[in-house]
Amino acid sequence: MDDIKIPKIQTKLQVNNSTEKDTAEMYLYGTIRKAYWWESDDDCISANRIKNVLAELKDKDINIHLNSPGGDVFESIAICNLLKQHSGNITIIIDALAASGGSVICMGANKVIMLSNSMMMIHKAWTIASGNADDLRKNANDLDKMDNAVLASYKSRFVGTDEELKALIKESSWFTADECKSLGFCDEILDEQQDLEPQEDIKNSILNKYMNKSKEPQWDPKPKPKVVANKNKQAIQNLFKKLGGVQ
Question: Which domain holds residue 77?
Fold first, then answer.
């Protein structure tokens, strides 16, 4: 897990759809997940809710204002794919944070816009598990497959190689708006200042940082036994001689 605590964001799904405008406005705030059995759909941001909203808006263009700490990986992928299949243009504006599953949702948009003080975070899938060794090995294999699904979502936008992308999700990477733009994760920074550093230089700086970290030696859970020299070997041999024992 990442050391930085992801903030809790109050759930909000609001749609402003005026017949006088060609574009609808949607506010998508909060954790991405299905409703629990005791809840209504209105208590969370789920793929089912998004599906119903998109059906109501038909082929209308939509601006989605996003602020999410992430959530369920499959709900996030489902929302991403629903946005891709919408017949109108989808523009996502990251109002503050698109972390974890929230960043996956962004990959379904035709255009991603950030503000200079908004951020994105990508990471490997994680879970809480219990059971025997076989159970835990299966959980690890399942997580690897989830990582591949998430990587497939990012590949549509990422400017770089598969190995570079894998290094970025391995390190639970937090990106500024400038960094997202250089990596292809966003298209525009709404309040962008004049570039002080070329985008290619920003990208190379990020990739060098995370690629080097991924090459660092990993912790070995089976430490090699230390060879300790017996400094008293001669004294022990002398003792055996005195006692008439073997050398």
Answer: 12-243
